[in-house]
Amino acid sequence: MGPCVVSCRSIHGGDVAAAMPRRVVSRNAARVWSGLAALLLCLGSLPARATSLNTICAPQDDPCVVDSMIAVDDGAVFDLGGRDLQITSSGSLDVGSGRMTIVAAGNISVEDGGELFARGAGAVAGGVLDVRADSIAIDGTVSASGSPPGTVTLAVVGAADVNVTGVVESAALARIESGGVVNIDAGSVRMLGEVDVSGGSEDSLGGDVEIAASGDVRIEGEISAFGSDGGSATVDAGAGVGSGNIVMSATSRIIADAKNQGGFGGSADITASGDGLTTGFVTVDGFISVLGDSAGEEFGGGSGGCLSITAEGDILNTDPAAVLTVAGGAPDGDGGELEIVSNRGRVSIAGKLDVSASGDDGGGGDVSIDALGAIDIFGPILASAGDAGEVALASTAAGVTIDEIASITANGRTIGSGGAVCLESASIGAGKEASVIIKGPIDVDGGGAAGDGGSLDVVGLDSARVTSIVSADGGLGGGLGGSVTLAADGPVFVEGTLRARGRGGSGGSIAIDAARIEVPGSITVEGSGAGPTDTDVGLTASGKIEIAGEILATGSPGSGGSIEIVTDSMLLIAGTLSADGGATPGGKIDARGCAVLLCGFGAEGCEGATGTVRTLGPDGLNRLTGRSNVDVFGTMTAERSGRNEVLAPAPVDDNAFVLGAVEPAAIKIEAQLEPCTGCGNGQVEQPPETCDDGNNDDGDGCSADCQIEDFDLGDVNGDARVDPDDLGFLAREIFDGDGDRIEDVSKPAFAGTPAADTNGDRRITAADFVGLVGVLVGR
Predict the structure, then answer these.
(1) Distance of alpha carbon 547 from alpha carbon 199, whole angstroms
(2) Which burial class, exposed, middle or buried, applies to 767 when counting CB atoms under 10 A from its CB (0-12, 13-18, 19+)?
């Protein structure tokens, strides 16, 4: 307030002398009275002081309106007895560094421009505001900022709202002070404005924000909890025994960053409780940041903080511009931890998840996503660092999908190693949806100088499919190749590229273990350099393995690698297997199956393709083993010092047929081999078979990996349609005279055995023809 200037001749419009008793007034006395009058007038312009509610408004006033500046005594308690309190745009309740309590209020509103203060200054502490009402609406400013700041509590009893479109703050007003505390507790919370508990820029912590609602929380504004080290922000919907949803819009921001050299990021915890059906959902489309700060070598970089999102229901991030980051600072700060857990729902992420570290000496952080339902990733996940971090996505009862517009990048820098990525689907009666599908690129390469490649582990309970590039290469300066492992109870499809190449060093390893394997894409673990280039590819299946693409385990000018393929069923090679090497032992290919077919010369089932098996290098070995038979129509090539071997049971000349281009000539070996068992032999062998119809075809009720398929009743020919074409297939089966009886779909009958049993009597008879006609008419 500015200086108070008052005329010595006027007090409330009257003459000073006129206000005195009628006697002679000395000149000195006149001066005294004149000064007193001026002081009284100045005091009249100061804020009124409040020690009780009656100082603010009359007992009968409802609402109690504050439309002027009122200074509140420390420790004042205002009990409104259920009345409303309205602080207008020109009103203010200010307790300074003291404590003010407002209780038993009906509805409290602070209008735009209005103030509810326990505010200090740059060298004065903030106070305590404790406000409890039936509902609270803040359009103006609620402040306990100071040095240090104080505490603001806004609490609503019952299911009513706290609405913040203005500012609620308890921020530090000096650079060496930590942030304060803001607590908001209500039935529901809607925050469109700003909550600020930021700390100073030096030797300070960000403050603490806690928003707890028994119902819903909606955030469209900003929560600031940064400091030289970050503070904390907690948002809890369905707190206590309640249930609610959390929505963070595209304009929302939670910032708990470090803002000083080498500072550590803080924490953000978001939790929604409920039944997982209509409540307990989280939508987070905004910006959440708990970054570590970068610094020079003297201070070192700060690590990122912790971000946790937990919900009973779905967790959705629908905005591609959204960012959730706990990245670390240069030069040696580590990335933080980002955890997303849906106990009963699914997780879908369209924005960016970032646990990287910006310096070459820092380590990447961890991303962990767990859900009962499906996990779908549509945006980038970043865990790159000097030594890259880890990404783990696991669904308990459904699948994991990395969409074609998504990516996972966990590569190392300079000589740092690539990271680790684990994708896992599991099933509790989820059927074929419990799969891992990788459509977008995954990069766990080692650092560009000489870092070793990282690892990818995939467990797809029902199946796994890769249509993109998955890379675990070593760095160009001599890094070793990493590892890729795919496993499934059902089939694995490699339609894209799997690679774990050594770039100046040995190649890595790629292993696939499944019921059935198809590789129309490429697998490569090439090594390079003059030393040993041990590389390894291993494919193991109980059912059919079909290689239509290429598998390369070469090492040049090194020693080459090895390829081992083992199946209890048919092995069809229509592509290229190569384990070339320039030095001894020159590589090895060992492929074993029940029946082995190396395609070429128009062989049935090869669709005109020619297969190649090659180990160019000293003492290289190509070996094909068929437990029932081996047919070689394609190309087998080894150096003159190497060997091509074909192994089959006796009589080997009848069971090993070699017609293709084989150089040097194949050596036929009569071997003692176990008889063929496994998928496609007409016998159910458990586990893991649930059926066996004598072939390795899909779409006939028993899949190529011998699992009972879903089918439409009447789809006899297995073309996924029920139409008149199925009548002909059914007629041929009915009249073939063998009286087929269905026993758990386990014996070979014909393509559509389960779908053809239209009357459900477990036999294929003329009655099923009538049943199929009924199905067609019904459709």
Answers:
(1) 61
(2) middle
CA-CA distance, 163 to 154, in Å (whole number)? 10
First-last CA distance in the chain:
86
- Tokens 């002070």: give the residue: 177
Alpha-carbon gap, residue 117 to 700, rounded angstroms: 75
With CA atoms as reference, report the closest residue to 267 among 341, 323, 338: 338
Contact 42, 35 (CB under 8 A): no
CB burial of 394-426 (b: ≥16 within 10 Å; e: otherwise) equals bbbbbbbbbbeebbbbbbbbebbbbbbbbbbbb
Predicted local confidence at residue 699, as pLDDT: 61
What is the structure's pLDDT at 533?
Answer: 55
For residue 726, report the phi and psi dihedrals to the nearest 5 degrees. Answer: -70, -25
Mean pLDDT calculated for residue range 138-154: 98
Residue 738, pLDDT > 70, answer no
In degrees, to the nearest 5, what angle opens at C-alpha 249 toward C-alphas 248 and 251?
115
Domain residue ranges of the chain, discontinuous segments joined by + = 1-46, 152-372, 402-528, 541-546+555-676, 692-779
Listed in sequence order, the residues at least 6 apart from 3 whose beta carbon sits closer than 8 Å to its beta carbon are none
The H-or-E segment that residue 141 falls in is: strand 141-143
- Say how far apart CA 675 and CA 685 lie, in whole Å: 14
Residues 374-408: pLDDT tens digits?
999 999 999 999 999 999 999 999 999 999 999 99
Owner of token pair 């961890």: 366
Q: What are phi and psi of 503, to 5 degrees?
A: -110, 75
Return d(Cα 25, Cα 204) in angstroms, integer.
63
CATH number given to 692-779:
1.10.1330.10
Nearest of 151, 120, 152, 149 to residue 136 by alpha carbon? 152
The CA-atom distances, in angstroms, between 599 and each of 274, 353, 587, 596, 704 are 58, 46, 22, 10, 20
